[in-house]
């Protein structure tokens, strides 16, 4: 069971509006085509996130080919991984205008183009543009819709669905590493990137599977299914009522906007009907005008939703819990990435290379990470369990492991800590669920775009910062300690803000009683 917004300090207004509606379960919610959406998202994680975790193979080829410094060459991979996440807020604008399916298909083409153009690179700076920026933006345009669509199609089993779909990252890390190794050995790195670009066109197929829910289906999703699920009622029905909590937009401005848009289209249709007696050329012009008007209305509505979510009077940033979530995301992701980047060097310093070659510590993290996502998703969907509490417990476990890892100097000790890091980092599958609980499905694309943007900044600067600390101290210990302490600050923000949100309404009611 997920944590409702009331669990973290939200007020939902009149609940009777939800219960008064008839129950109309939709076969595509939590079943039917929803599992095709999970399959699509799973494949997206294999092709995008899995490929990015296997870029170390290409990084060695680029070092040998271009003879540049390790720091400069590493920025190619960092740019690709960082931009994939950083562009999240802007991809939210595309989703608002075009929908998830169109955005994902365009992103698949752009990602494949980035891989193919990178095969003709003459220097590292060329790769910055083609692979880092072009392929990175394309990856972001597919990744965000893949996460958002799972959230739209699932209600009761959202955590499990997100867990299953995101396990593609772990599977992809193994598959893509083996594939790129084979392709580079047999055909060279340039042909390998060309072939990988062709494979990436399958992202367009994944995007085509993202069939959008109709407005009727979305409304049915938020109907309370039975009295036994009464404790979930307050987290639903966003399409049928105006939310009174901080940061969630009301429906009245949208109704006015839709009325204005319908008036514009109606006037165009009236002109078209009146001009039927005219020439064929004028009729063609009227049809063209109608098409342009419809496109303009779609763009206006999408931009209005995107702009109001970020900059409007009731924007997402007025939601204090969500702002705390952003601060947490700025520190959290680097604590997961840093071990992947620096563990091989730590193993070499401790003279554990022989054991690590048999079973690499990074592989332990990746394997257990797969099981962690699924198991944490199953636990979160249990009726007596709060997703918010599972999310916080996993974070506490991960930050403890990050702070403990420098103290382990044996392979067994490091392997145990790495296994715990892999399992606890399975909370990544809960992030879309927690985000949806905070802002609602309607604003999930924009809100989750901000969260992954913060993760992207963390991933972009975290590993270089850890390397800089090593250059100063000649130890990786302080890198993990500083990353762990910053991570703890983010967790404290998550703990404090819900308490403030719950306290404020009670104080307000006390003041009213005194008056």
TrEMBL record:
Primary localization class, coarse: membrane
GO MF entries: monocarboxylic acid transmembrane transporter activity
Keyword Membrane: yes
Topology of this chain in the membrane: Multi-pass membrane protein
Domain of life: Eukaryota
Subcellular location: Membrane
Listed GO CC annotations: membrane
Name by which UniProt lists this protein: MOT14 protein
Stretches the record annotates as Disordered: 225-254
Keyword Cytoplasm recorded: no
InterPro entries per record: MFS, MFS_dom, MFS_trans_sf, Proton-linked_MCT
Alphabetic keyword roster: Membrane, Transmembrane, Transmembrane helix
Annotated Major facilitator superfamily (MFS) profile domain residues: 37-502
Biased composition regions of type Polar residues, renumbered to the chain: 234-245
SUPFAM superfamilies: MFS general substrate transporter
Xref: PANTHER family: MONOCARBOXYLATE TRANSPORTER, MONOCARBOXYLATE TRANSPORTER 14
TM region positions: 33-55, 75-95, 102-120, 126-148, 160-180, 192-210, 321-341, 361-379, 386-405, 411-434, 446-466, 478-496
Chain's gene name: Slc16a14
């Amino acid at each position: 069971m997920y944590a409702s917004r009331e669990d973290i300090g939200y007020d939902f207004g009149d609940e009777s509006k939800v219960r008064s509606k008839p129950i109309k379960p939709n076969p595509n919610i939590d079943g039917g085509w929803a599992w095709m959406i999970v399959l699509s998202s799973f494949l997206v994680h294999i092709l995008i996130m899995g490929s990015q975790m296997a870029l170390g193979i290409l990084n060695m080829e680029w070092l040998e080919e271009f003879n540049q410094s390790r720091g400069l060459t590493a920025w190619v991979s960092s740019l690709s991984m960082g931009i994939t996440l950083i562009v999240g807020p802007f991809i939210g604008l595309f989703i608002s205008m075009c929908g998830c399916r169109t955005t994902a298909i365009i992103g698949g083409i752009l990602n494949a183009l980035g891989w193919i153009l990178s095969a003709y690179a003459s220097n590292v700076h060329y790769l910055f543009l083609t692979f880092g920026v072009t392929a990175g933006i394309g990856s972001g345009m597919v990744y965000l819709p893949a996460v958002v669509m799972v959230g739209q199609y699932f209600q009761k089993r959202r955590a499990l669905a997100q867990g299953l779909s995101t396990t593609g990252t772990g599977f992809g890390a193994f598959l893509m590493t083996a594939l790129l190794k084979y392709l580079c050995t047999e055909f060279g790195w340039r042909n390998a990137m060309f072939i990988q670009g062709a494979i990436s066109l399958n992202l367009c197929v994944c995007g085509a599977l993202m069939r959008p829910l109709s407005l009727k289906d979305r409304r049915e999703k938020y109907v309370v299914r039975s009295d036994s699920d009464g404790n979930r009622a307050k987290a639903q029905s966003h399409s049928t009522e105006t939310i009174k909590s901080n940061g969630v937009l009301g429906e009245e401005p949208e109704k006015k906007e839709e009325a204005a848009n319908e008036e514009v289209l109606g006037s165009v249709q009236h002109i078209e009907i009146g001009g039927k007696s005219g020439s064929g050329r004028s009729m063609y012009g009227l049809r063209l005008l109608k098409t342009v008007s419809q496109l303009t209305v779609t763009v206006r509505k999408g931009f209005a939703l995107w702009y109001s979510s970020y900059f409007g009077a009731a924007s997402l940033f007025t939601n204090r819990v969500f702002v705390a979530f952003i601060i947490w995301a700025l520190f959290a992701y680097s604590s997961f990435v840093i071990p992947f980047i620096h563990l091989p060097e730590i193993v070499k310093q401790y003279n554990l290379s022989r054991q690590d070659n048999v079973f690499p510590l990074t592989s332990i993290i990746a394997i257990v990470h797969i099981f962690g996502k699924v198991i944490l998703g199953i636990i979160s969907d249990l009726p007596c369990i709060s997703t918010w509490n599972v999310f916080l417990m996993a974070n506490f476990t991960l930050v403890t492991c990050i702070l403990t890892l420098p103290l382990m100097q044996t392979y067994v000790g490091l392997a145990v800590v790495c296994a715990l890091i892999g399992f606890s980092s399975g909370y990544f599958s809960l992030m879309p669920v927690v985000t949806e609980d905070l802002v609602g499905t309607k604003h999930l694309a924009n809100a989750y775009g901000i969260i992954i943007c913060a993760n992207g900044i963390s991933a972009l600067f975290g590993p270089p910062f850890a390397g800089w600390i090593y250059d100063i101290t000649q130890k990786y210990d302080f890198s993990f300690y500083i990353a762990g302490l910053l991570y703890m600050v983010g967790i404290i923000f998550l703990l404090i803000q819900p308490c403030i949100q719950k306290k404020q309404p009670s104080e307000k009611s006390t003041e009213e009683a005194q008056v």
